[in-house]
Amino acid sequence: MALKLVIGNKNYSSWSMRPWLALRANQIAFEEVFIPLYTDDKADKDRILSFSRAGKVPALIDGDVTIWDSLAIIEYLAERFPEARLWPEDATQRARARSISAEMHSGFMALRNECGMNLHRPVGAVTLSVDAQANVARIQEIWIECRQRYGEAGPFLFGKFGAADAMFAPVVHRFRTYAIAVAPQVQAYMDTMLELPAFAEWTRAGLAETLVIERFETV
Ligand SMILES: N[C@@H](CCC(=O)N[C@@H](CS)C(=O)NCC(=O)O)C(=O)O
């Protein structure tokens, strides 16, 4: 039975983007189930709840197994498709990749609040709080350190595209959309991500969406 990934609007749903990319970048076949987010229609929320009692997307359905929460889905995919090598083979690198992925998953609240993913937002800078500026600095530090350590193995954080890249992918759009000044090595990594066919496919689809979530259009 085909895997099903339940996702929200590609323009806005940064959590949906992460496992979607992990699947698509590795050519793992799946059926996409789209549910529009934050509509006034209770039926939409009920549909999300019918897949996951957490009431959030993404959710992955694999036969009679449901996995919800982006990082748990990526962990499941790494186990289910070991050939995709979503985590580095080396234990030390894997520990680092898991640490930065968890740091992304549980942190950077200020940046996430102040610079929501919104692909169709015209590019333009906003004034960031001190906390958001610290988030930007920390993310740049993480990316630069990975590139310095593992750059010889390939252009992504641990050489080949993997779970950590998927977890940070929406930040590439945030840095781009909010015209955040970045170091040259960071820009090079962002360009690599923007050129990844799966990343470009998600972006194109997000830009083609016409649904607007007013509450995300205030910045
Ligand atoms: N920690 C969760 C966060 C999921 C999340 O917040 N999803 C948002 C969309 S990006 C959502 O489903 N919102 C719909 C709602 O709350 O009704 C994850 O990593 O998957």
Give the overall pLDDT as a whole number. Answer: 97
Shape: globular
Helix content: 40-55%
Give the uncertain stretches in residue-range form: none
N/C terminus separation? 42 Å
Rg, Cα atoms, Å: 17 Å
In this structure, how is the largest beta sheet organized? 4 strands, mixed
The SSE order reads: EHEHEEHHHHHHH
Provide the β-strand percentage band: 5-15%
Q: Which structural class is indicated by helix and strand composition?
A: alpha+beta
Question: How are the strands of the biggest sheet laid out side by side?
Answer: 2-1-3-4
Ligand types: glutathione
User: How many helices in DSSP terms?
Assistant: 9
Structural account:
This protein has 219 residues and is of the alpha+beta class. Helices cover 52% and strands 8% of the residues. The protein has a four-stranded mixed sheet with strand order 2-1-3-4, covered by helices on one side. Helix 1 (14-24) runs parallel beside helix 3 (70-80) and helix 4 (91-106) crosses helix 7 (163-177). The termini are far apart. Glutathione binds at residues 8, 13-16, 37, 45, 55-58, 69-71.
Present the secondary structure layout.
Elements: E1 3-7, H1 14-24, E2 30-34, H2 42-51, E3 59-62, E4 65-68, H3 70-80, H4 91-106, H5 109-114, H6 130-150, H7 163-177, H8 184-195, H9 197-208
Parallel strand pairs: 1-2
Antiparallel strand pairs: 1-3, 3-4
Helix pairs in contact: 1-3, 1-7, 4-7
Short note summarizing the structure:
The chain contains nine helices and four strands, in the order βαβαββααααααα.
